[in-house]
Automatic annotation (TrEMBL):
Pfam families: NPHP3_N (PF24883). The keyword Repeat applies. Residues 28-76 form the Nephrocystin 3-like N-terminal domain. It comes from the Bacteria. This is ATPase. Keywords: Repeat.
Amino acid sequence: MKYKKERHLFPGGNTSKGFHSFYDYILPQQEANRILCMKGGPGTGKSTLMKKVAKVFIDKGYSLEYHHCSSDDKSLDAIVIKELKLAILDGTKPHMVDPKNPGAVDEILNMGIALDNEALSLNKKEIMEIQSIKSTNFNRAYNFLASAKSIHEDWSRLNSKALIPSKSSTITESLISEIFSGNSKFGYGNERHLFATAYTPNGVITYAKGLTENFNKKYILKGGPGFGKSTILKDIGKLAQRKGYFVEYFHDPFIPTRLEHILIPEISTCILTENEISQCSFEGKVYNMEDFCDNSIISTLKTEIEYNKNIFYELTNKAIELIALAHKVHAELETYYVKAIDFSILDKIYNEVIEKFEKYEK
């Protein structure tokens, strides 16, 4: 199957372990024709330039990936022009990406040359104070997410007590039988790791429905934490790779070592979870994890589970509130940089990028 012309996802996330990045998977070095690593302060037009470049090439009929910023989902961290194997990405904090193969694959695109540094230095004190407040808000947000993780672990342990392993193992067996049924390719399949969902200033945002819209076969694992959904996804994903298929792993935005969804595009198949983070529902064949549990245990633990659930959402909502505050402060910071920008230089950079990228069409 072919992906949609436009795909929206997150290359990084605000998680219970702090900021977590999958930037290396935006466009792997060995596949890329050219990667531009953008450098420059806030308000220097990085996201705006990416949106403008993306529009030029999507209007030409190319497929575009829009990699959104988890700290501002209306802003972009990267774009990828799939057919031309070209990418532009924001290489500034917190990602701090530098060229890995300078000149051969990637290069720095310095947006800072459009800044009047002398004008900025006049507001040094205010800029540093705002940066400090922004950093404090993010650190507090991560502390609340880390606190929520402890509650989430207890919630998971309670749910796992009810799970009947002999029954739940049949889910994996059923999925293997339905998905593969003898299909395989030669060699070991590649993999890609990203986020479909993120904690953002606008709450929990997920692009999972759009990412899987064109898939023919959808299997859904429904249930809260502790029911082994991530393990099932991991087992099926690794089996698909052993059978030669490319697999996209979309990670849990709360605990990034776990999985939220997997996509196997070559056989138009995806396995999705309906979970406590995104609270997103899908159409497809549903496996309700509670059907593989001892209902009497779930009933006995119901009060404790509800208690954990309420505290979990209270803590994560506080984290979202702090991420929103950090975003608001960041907007104040941008005003200083916007005032110090020479927009004619930004226009020149944009034209140079278009010219550079159009050479790969030939």
